[in-house]
Amino acid sequence: MIEVRGVSQVFQTKNGPFQALKDVSIDIPKGDFVAIIGRSGAGKSTFLRTLNGLLIPTEGSIKVEGLEITRLSKRELQKYRRSVGFIFQQFNLVTRLSVLDNVLHGRLGYLPTWRGLLGLYTERDYQIARAQLEQVDLTPKESARVDSLSGGQMQRVAIARAMAQEPRLMLADEPAANLDPVLSEEVMRILKRFNEQLGMTVVINIHALDLALEYARRIIAFKKGELVFDGTAAELTDEL
Ligand code: ADP
Ligand code: ADP
To answer: Where is the ABC transporter domain (predicted)?
Structure first.
């Protein structure tokens, strides 16, 4: 599904060029569940951002279902990005809006000011948004404002919002970093369920090695921008 070939990312900084990714190549088949581990600064976020088209690598190519995403027009890139779900460490929800509005917002892709007046959402949008809230056990909170929720509930709203896009690929950048261990496991369980039940491809950055070992099918490690390990949890445990 994803073919990464020779991807390098060089940032221009005050101290000169800095290479955050070095000649990274990897194939990720449809339905895989990949955890990316590595120290802070190893290039994990940079790699994820190249996968969702937020960052165009300085070198190399990335194909997603045959689409060369490093060579898209602005418009095509926008369309591609709508097909990828992204879950952030800081949830990135619109806190003054309701839970349901945030999930609907995920389907629309932008925040309408006069949603009610214009009737922007279809019946199907509502159906899908509500179905996703049910998947993460938040149906009773549908009308609550996001800023009244706990951190764990907020991350579940963020997952429902990403799922409401009906993404072909789900990327998550440290989704459990701001959550306690119990809630972190819950987030991982939800992602694993979508992976297993829907065959959804999941790629997740995670610094908690125990969670990566327990939930991911495949683990890759970055060190100073280089891909230094690619294998199963069992293989990684052997290596350590
Ligand atoms: P990780 O997610 O593994 O912590 P990052 O991908 O965020 O690592 O960052 C890798 C390295 O690239 C870090 O040294 C970071 O400071 C640097 N970096 C990331 N983004 C930029 C940027 N936009 N400009 C300059 N340097 C950057
Ligand atoms: P994380 O490691 O959690 O991904 P970072 O602090 O590395 O977070 O990066 C947060 C944001 O700051 C990212 O958008 C990244 O591109 C940017 N960034 C990181 N390092 C630099 C840097 N040295 N110069 C400019 N932007 C940077």
So the answer is: 2-240
